[in-house]
Amino acid sequence: MKSVLVIGLGRFGRHLSRKFIEEGNAVLAIEKDETRADWAVNIVNEIQIGDATNEDFIKSLGVNNFDICVVAVGDNFQTALEITVLLKDFGAEYIIARASRDVHRKLLLRNGADHVVYAEREIAEKIAIKYGAKNVFDYLELTPDIAIYEIKIPESWLNKTIIEKAVRTRYHVSILATKKNGRIFPLPPTNHVFAADETLIVMGTAKSIKEITR
């Protein structure tokens, strides 16, 4: 179980708090607006009303005792930046912040955030790849360069084995699983024969995936 401090109980903060709790973590939520705090009483067990841009208030929370501190006030960049800097100054171990613009993401990372959630861009990229890319059914970014894709099996691979196609060395992707009739079969053996009624879950670069699915 991890201890999590969530600052801001807008939609993002409430959803995040609920998920952290569902995963068995202890959450303390901070909200300046009492009305928003009231909306979240059925989600978060422990809520404090306070101004997280106030240095004395942040100090009183003992932020260095939390495993994760989340700045969930991305609608107001100046506030998010001030809170991030204060958390860092008082020894927060790991800070996650939310941004609505790329320039905000860069500034938050330079001023104490360890990870920045850029929800709008991440959702837009996922939708564009999932629905716009040829023969790609789903997508999960791991880093800016590497992602996991669910793809249609190329016709030239059908009735061939993984080792026959030399997938990793020739195409520079790793096959994580096959999917058939809604069921996932992890780590198929090298003698697995590709079939038309299954899809592949692979990890690789966008360039490698385009080469396979074109």
Automatic annotation (TrEMBL):
GO terms for molecular function: monoatomic cation transmembrane transporter activity. Residues 1-117 form the RCK N-terminal domain. GO terms for biological process: potassium ion transport. PROSITE patterns: RCK_C (PS51202), RCK_N (PS51201). It holds the Pfam family TrkA_C. InterPro entries: NAD(P)-bd_dom_sf (IPR036291), RCK_C (IPR006037), RCK_C_sf (IPR036721), RCK_N (IPR003148), Trk_Ktr_HKT_K-transport (IPR050721). Residues 134-214 form the RCK C-terminal domain. PANTHER family: KTR SYSTEM POTASSIUM UPTAKE PROTEIN C, POTASSIUM CHANNEL PROTEIN 2-RELATED-RELATED. This is TrkA N-terminal domain protein. The lineage of its organism: Bacteria, Bacillati, Bacillota, Erysipelotrichia, Erysipelotrichales.
